[in-house]
Write a structure and sequence with these properties.
Elements: H1 2-11, H2 15-35, H3 41-63, H4 70-77, H5 85-108, H6 118-142, H7 148-152, H8 157-182, H9 188-206, H10 211-222, H11 228-236
Helix pairs in contact: 1-2, 2-3, 2-5, 2-6, 3-5, 4-5, 4-9, 5-8, 5-9, 6-8, 6-11
Length: about 240
């Protein structure tokens, strides 16, 4: 992930925004594993690595022109689009949680009872919530007019993100159970349908149907820092 971030900075690719966020999430999960805050910490470490590898493999596939999921292809293809920092982050969150998380949980628990991982799976909600709070504060450093989403969305931008994460993780658990029930060798059609659904969500994140939200996003984007390296350095700074 450090390599992905470094490459994004070197090429001024907005792919680096989600990579930075996810690097932070992965480090926090590892920290919680080392502390022993999961029911099965060894299994959670295996799960976390498997989950991260879906993202890393998709990135490697994209950069080497190999077939990857439609939703990741769409998210990566926006790397040079003039979207807000928040939208670029949400495009990554959308695919990684709505698609990859269910795939990872199903794969790790094949041959075992999937309900055994449910509590640890849900524990990550708290970790993600904490990261969202932290990222919310950091985003204001590079997106000074982010408060406009409060008005456009009739809610706080932080709650919009939290809501999206909560719904995404609920869906990913449903997907994990479905894929786990189908078993290896019988999941392709289901994964294809999930991928198409996540792709549609990505299209919505890129181009919201609400004209007010669309206008607010375009307006606040005009005042955001455009240099990827500078954005990441500001997000990273203590």
């Amino acid at each position: 992930m450090d390599e992905i971030i470094d490459n994004a900075i070197a090429n001024n690719d907005r792919i680096g925004y989600f990579a930075f966020l996810y690097r932070r999430v992965t480090a926090e999960i590892l920290k919680e594993v080392q502390i022993g805050n999961f029911e099965d910490n060894a299994r959670m470490e295996t799960f976390d690595v498997a989950f991260a590898n879906y993202y890393i493999d998709a990135y490697k596939g994209y950069t080497t022109n190999q077939p990857i999921s439609k939703s990741w292809q769409f998210a990566f293809d926006t790397k040079n689009d003039p979207l807000t920092v928040l939208q670029h982050i949400m495009l990554g969150i959308n695919t990684h949680i709505n698609l990859d998380l269910g795939l990872a949980a199903s794969a790790v628990m094949q041959g075992k009872e999937i309900m055994e991982i449910e509590k640890d799976f849900n524990t990550v909600n708290t970790i993600l919530g904490n990261i969202v709070n932290e990222m919310q504060d950091r985003l204001s450093r590079v997106s000074p007019l982010l408060f406009l989403l409060d008005l456009a969305g009739k809610n706080t931008d932080e709650e919009i993100i939290n809501f999206s994460l909560a719904k995404a993780r609920e869906l990913s658990w449903i997907n994990a159970n479905l894929l786990w029930g189908l078993g290896d060798g019988h999941q392709d059609d289901a994964i294809h349908q999930m991928d198409n659904t996540v792709l549609r969500l990505g299209v919505f994140i890129k181009a919201p149907k609400s004209k007010i939200v669309t206008y607010a996003l375009k307006f606040l984007g005009k005042f955001e820092e455009k240099n990827v390296g500078l954005v990441i350095s500001k997000l990273k700074a203590d």
